[in-house]
Amino acid sequence: MCNLYRMRAATQEIGQLFGARVTDGLNAPGEIYPGYPGLVVAEGDVRQMTWGLPLHMTGKQGQKLKPKPVNNAREDKLHTPFWRDSFAKRRCLIPVSEWAEAEGAKGQMTRTWYAMPGGEPFAVGGLWRPTAEWGNAYAMVMVDGCEQMADVHDRMPVLLTRETWATWTDGTPEEAFALCRTWAGDLMVDRTAERWAKAR
Fold it and tell me: What does the pLDDT profile of the chain (200 residues) look like in tens digits?
């Protein structure tokens, strides 16, 4: 599952690329982690939201714990109560330059980055909803991983071509679900020596 991605383009560039309205004051870091702000395209606007929908958990003594951000939605779970309403009514596009997976032995994991050939920003299929805890929050939709990442992880984000953006955001749930498939094109793979758990 994806727990880190980058967006290198500026907010205005994202607006131009996706044909979306941009308001002043939007700000997101270049590297996005669960529980932190990122930019999405929803309802024709570039919006700042928190990456991860809050999941409420209870401790061993029954005490309420701090909500956990659930930042990935498996496509085979989209019809469960946690995701169903958001997938049916509030799908969004997540602008991404590249995403990372952890590779290597535990405690020594490094970052392996995946991107589109040419390095251009692309869209990942997402969904969102308003939350009482963090305001508007979003999650990436995940499918089975492609062959190029088989030795690193068995899941990957839903990658959308430009021709499918409108179907994802405005089509029926059935039409959008049909786009939840493993990427069949090429990817750029960059195996780095960057430590996975470096300081944020």
Answer: 689 999 999 999 999 999 999 988 898 888 999 999 999 999 999 999 999 999 987 778 878 888 889 999 999 999 999 999 999 999 999 999 999 999 998 889 999 999 999 888 999 999 999 999 999 999 999 999 999 988 888 999 999 999 999 999 999 999 999 999 999 999 999 999 999 886 54
Domains and CATH numbers, the chain: 5-53+67-195 (3.90.1680.10)
DSSP letter at 105 equals S
Q: Count Cβ atoms below 10 Å from residue 141 Cβ, excluding itself.
A: 26
Strands (E), 26-109: 31-32, 37-42, 45-51, 53-55, 68-70, 72-74, 91-96, 98-103
Residue 115, SS3? strand
Q: What is the largest CA-CA distance in the chain?
A: 52
Taking Cα atoms as reference points, which of 148, 153, 141 lies closest to residue 179? 141
CA distance 144 to 139: 16
